[in-house]
Amino acid sequence: MTTSPPEPGRLTIGLDGSMAGASGNYIKRLGDMSGVYRDAQAYAQALTEHGEDRVVYTVQEHRNVTDDGALIIGTSTLLPGKIGDEFAVTRGHLHARPNRAELYHCLSGTGVMLLETLDGRSRAVPLTAGEAVHVPGHWVHRSVNTGDESFVTLFCYPADAGQDYELIQQAGGMATLVVADGPDGWTTRPNPDHGGYRHPAAT
Amino acid sequence: MTTSPPEPGRLTIGLDGSMAGASGNYIKRLGDMSGVYRDAQAYAQALTEHGEDRVVYTVQEHRNVTDDGALIIGTSTLLPGKIGDEFAVTRGHLHARPNRAELYHCLSGTGVMLLETLDGRSRAVPLTAGEAVHVPGHWVHRSVNTGDESFVTLFCYPADAGQDYELIQQAGGMATLVVADGPDGWTTRPNPDHGGYRHPAAT
Lengths: 203, 203
What we know:
Two copies of one chain form a homodimer.
Chain A: E1 9-13, E2 19-20, E3 24-29, H1 40-50, E4 55-62, E5 71-78, E6 82-83, E7 86-89, E8 102-108, E9 110-117, E10 122-128, E11 131-135, E12 139-145, E13 151-158, H2 166-170, E14 176-181, E15 185-190
Antiparallel strand pairs in A: 1-2, 3-4, 4-5, 5-13, 6-7, 7-12, 8-11, 8-13, 9-10, 9-12, 14-15
């Protein structure tokens, strides 16, 4: 490694989440979101209305080496919408190495970073262009789009972090729901299905 | 750690490098830049003209824990100017743990990220608002302001990276200078004082 590090990554990042120079990307579709929203009937109705292939969020990212000092840099673009009264969300995760932190810097749109600790703290941090959240390790986190346009964030986190996506599912969903409150507002409400998080192996 | 991670950091980041919610900051002044520029006479003249207290760049940052998965997030605001025909620069560094990577995302202004490997590769990556560079580990790097206004970048890097600032000084400066080329342009020129980098202890 010391004699031949990779070339610097040159990225052009649009406020719409476009990322020229990205090394990879993935797309999540409505059909991938089974079990994520509390209102199963509203989710089934959305599938009927929009089809399972409807894009719900996209991720562009740049990574090079998997060295323990390496980073992954990217953008997340979460389309607007509601399933029942729940706003559109990403699946959410705890890092597989739970002490890994992450930056989310909002580039455009309006949303919330929903954050929860395994022992019951819950925070909903509003984000709009220019606002950022520094997610420390040991916080489960998910993006929520509370607006009418795409909610776009730039993210940066250690390349060896990994994602534990099952934790939320096993807990019956995150402890808090971000739901509509009046025609343009949002609020949080406890999720009665949430049964507490298991504690993953410490890292 | 697993039972009481710190609160998420809530940051409001201005295009001018302001950062509400920062946990710290520092200021570099003209008097701190002794030995950084090649033209010692031009530097002495700038000191006489502007005084040693003149601000040349400022850094705002947010850090919480020093866990090995932690990050430092901040902004760097490098004021415009030239010393002789060299554009304004930050001191530059290799990470003390050399394999630590870093993101620089330009928020405003116009500049260059100058990057060099210990074995002689050199890259000058132009940056303006929306452009970013993913600096892999093992690259010495420095910001250069090639414009007329402040050159502002958002950065994110592992909290345990550290900075080796002496490496560049011991090498007689970075291998490449970023200098004026016509009334509004810039170009690179080899630094004849550069004698090669020592190889720091591998990490």
